[in-house]
Design brief:
- The protein has 6 helices and 7 strands.
- It is α/β, with parallel strands linked by helices.
- Strands 3-2-1-4-5-7-6 form a 7-stranded mixed sheet, with helices on both faces.
- Strand 1, helix 2 and strand 2 form a beta-alpha-beta unit.
């Protein structure tokens, strides 16, 4: 009798262990998965786009003239691309005006120009070529050149361009210039305002041209919020891009960043909404 009781006492725990083993195993496995997922979760830092998700937001730069992108956001462009966000450029005008106030250009890179080209057509071909060269320096392959005449840009064109980028191509972060004494810059600002009024939840950024220079007109932005971003680490490509424009003489000596000491490679002022 005692022998039977002893056998039962030993057998019961064994039977219970066998019966409950799958439950223990499932619970331990589930706990292991949660811990693993938690350890492997990565967070995407704010790359200047306001993005905190794992999918980089698409960023579009609306540029009035070739060289504005380098002067205003040459470092910011590199930073955003380095952080993995797709970047696209829309060059709105060719900067082809030839007047006593506006610089002529030098065909430093031997661009192919028809013999019967007017001074305006010649300037257009050279400046657009310089923009393409700068896109190559920054490593940006996504861009579009509208070739509007210098001074002929209007807010409706800018708005339509931005709206198409949003609705058809999924761009949700937009950069353009602030307003100042230049009509094309102001058209870009007004077009962005129209876009912001219609799509207030997207991200809008502005950058002034030569805001740090004593002789430049005071800028106006759509917001008072701004950050001065240190971009010194991107000096090499920004300086190379500047040199492209300087070689064709589209940047006045007084505004060239290495000519008078009034310009430094950074910071770059970014006005931001949302």
């Amino acid at each position: 009798m005692k022998k039977t009781i002893i056998i039962l006492l030993l057998a019961i725990p064994l039977i219970l262990f066998i019966a409950l083993f799958p439950t223990f195993s499932a619970e331990n496995g589930s706990s292991g998965i949660q811990s693993n997922n938690s350890n492997n979760t990565t967070q995407t830092a704010d790359n200047g786009t306001g993005n905190t998700s794992s999918t980089p937001e698409k960023v579009a730069f609306i540029i009035p003239h070739a060289d504005d992108e380098t002067i205003g956001v040459g470092g910011t462009v590199q930073r955003i691309m380095e952080d993995g966000s797709p970047v696209h450029f829309e060059l709105m005008t060719s900067g082809d005006a030839v007047t006593s106030q506006l610089l002529t250009v030098t065909n430093y890179y031997d661009v192919s120009i028809p013999a019967n080209a007017t001074a305006s057509e010649r300037k257009k071909l050279i400046r657009e070529d310089s923009f393409k060269k700068v896109m190559g320096i920054f490593g940006c392959t996504s861009y579009n050149i509208h070739s509007f005449d210098d001074g002929a840009l209007n807010a409706n064109v800018v708005f339509t361009t931005m709206e198409n980028l949003y609705l058809k191509e999924g761009y949700t972060v937009f950069y353009t210039t602030t307003g100042d004494g230049n009509g094309d810059h102001l058209a870009c600002q007004q077009g962005m305002k129209m876009m912001k009024d219609k799509y207030p939840n997207l991200k809008y950024r502005q950058f002034p041209i030569y805001y740090y220079h004593a002789n430049r007109a005071v800028t106006s932005a759509l917001t008072k919020n701004y950050t001065d971003v240190n971009v010194n680490q991107y000096v090499a490509k920004k300086k190379s891009a500047f040199q492209v424009y300087y070689n064709i003489h589209t940047i006045l000596n007084t505004f060239y960043p290495y000519s008078d000491g009034l310009y430094s490679i950074g910071p770059e002022r970014i006005y931001y909404m949302n």
